[in-house]
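Protocol step 4 of 6: structure prediction from sequence.
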Amino acid sequence: QVQLVESGGGLVQPGGSLRLSCAASGGTGSFDPMAWYRQAPGKQRELVARATSGTTDYADSVKGRFTISRDNAKNMVYLQMTSLKPEDTAVYYCNARHTGWGGSWEYWGQGTQVTVSS
């Protein structure tokens, strides 16, 4: 059974940094793309960053501040967040598409809370 487990969220002051991690496990195939989404209270879930086939893309609001990276050997995806702002406060979700013998399916992690506040 495929699982995505996030870690690394927490409370940080404006201007600070956090690193989120997501471990993907299970299945018989590969994970691609892998991405981070976020959802703030009262707002829709939005794409933050995505990594696939050696390319990355970012939401305009995080360009230059956030960096997504992957360790394909470990099926891990990371989100390094710097210069955090209060508006970055949200639940951050790991997302990945797993393609294997059974087909191609999209999976979500349980989410990790990031709060940016002084």
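Step 5 (inspection) to follow. The mean pLDDT is 96.
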